Amino acid sequence: MGAVLDGLNNAFNALNNIGADLPPAVREKAQKVVVSAIIVTQVAAQAATMAAASAATNAASTGGGTSGGSSSGSSKGSEARRREE
């Protein structure tokens, strides 16, 4: 158990030290870029989720999927017609 906690502590410390070697101005700019990228990614993921949910709702309300139509009779009749022509 102690090894697991020690590993988690090391991982947490490593994450906290990311960018520690950067000058403050560069770190601030990088932070803004990263935050912006995360926000854009979250917005895109939410839009994709909403589009998928909307498509699923529309498919469920219309009977789902695409309709190929119905056919009656066999295809032998159309083959015979093609031969006659």
Taking all Cα atoms into account, the compactness measure Rg is: 30 Å
Spatial shape: elongated
Give the mean pLDDT.
Answer: 80
- Class from secondary-structure proportions: mainly alpha
Our count of helices gives 3
Sketch the topology as an H/E string, one letter per element: HHH
Helix content: over 70%
* Total strand segments: 0
- Low-pLDDT segments: none
Explain what this protein looks like in three dimensions.
The protein has 85 residues and is mainly alpha-helical. The protein has a domain at 23-62. 73% of the residues lie in helices and 0% in strands. The mean pLDDT is 80. The termini are far apart.
Descriptors for this entry?
85 residues; 3 helices; 0% strand; elongated
Q: How are the elements arranged and paired?
A:
Layout: H1 2-16, H2 24-61, H3 76-84
Short summary of the structure?
The protein is mostly helical. It has three helices and no strands. It has a domain of 40 residues.
